[in-house]
Amino acid sequence: MRLGERLRRIEREGRLDPTVARMKKLARRLPSGKPRDLLHGVPLGHPLHPITVHLPIGSWTAAVVLDLLPGNHSRSAHALVNTGLLATLPAVVSGLADWSQQHERQQRVGVVHAALNATGTALFAASSFARYREQGTKAKALALCGIGAVGIGGYLGAHISYYRAGGANSADALLDLTPRDWHDLGPLEGFPDGGLGGADADGVPVVVARRGRSVSAFLGLCTHMGAPLEQGELVDGCVRCPWHGSEFSLEGGTVAHGPATASLEVLETSTADGRLWVRHPGT
Ligand code: FES
Membrane-crossing residues (predicted)? Predict the structure, then answer.
C-alpha cells in the first residue's frame, strides 16, 4: 500500500475526535463575515493558507541550508529562523479557518498536520533561543528536527489538499462533462419562482434560480466541497450552499461569502415555447 493510501487510516481514527472537537471550539472564535472571507482567500479566488505557509517553510529551509554550509552564517540563519516564527500566525489562522469547514476525514488528518507543525514551530523557537545563547550545535540540531517535523506536516497537508481535494474547486470536473449543444431542462414553470430548482443536463447537475421570467443556471455542485446546490436557498440575490453557507451571486456566480473561493460556472440559458434550455458557457 502506498504512503498516501496509508494516511487514510488517520482519516478513520476516532481517537482524534476529542482533539477535533477542541479545535472546532477554537475555530469558532475566529472572526466572521469579511475577515473570515479574507482568511479563506475569497478576494484572491484561491485559498489563502497555501500562500501563507510559504514564508515559514521557506525561511526555515533556508536557515537549515545555511547551517549546513561551511563558514559562519549564524546571524543570517538566526534571522531566518525568527522570520519563520513571525510568519506562522497567518498560516495558523488561515489554516484553522479552512479546516473548520472540512469533512471529518479531512479534519482528523488536519489535527495531526497541525500537531506536527506545532512541534516544528516549537523546535524552531527552541533553536532560536539556543542561537541567542550561542549554542550553535544545539541550535542546528533543533532546526534540523524542526524542518523534519514541518516536512511531514506538509506532507499531510498535501494529502488534505490533493488526495481529499480540500481547497480545490470541487465542481471543476463538471465543466468538461457539460453539453456543448443546447439541452432542454423542461418547462420553465417547473422551477420554483423565487427559489432554487435542480435539473440534469446529460448527467451533469444544474441548479436553476428563477425569479419570474428571469432565470439563471449554474453547474449544480458547490465549488467548496461539492454540496448539491439545489438543496440550498436563494437569499439576497445569492445561491446559498446547504452545507457550509457559501454564497454565490446570481450575477456571474462570483463568491459573495466563503468558505468557497471559486465561482460557480454560469450556464448559458434560453427560453423557447415556455421551456428552459442551457448549454456550456464557452460554446
Ligand atoms: S460545500 Fe461547503 S460551502 Fe458549499
Answer: 141-162
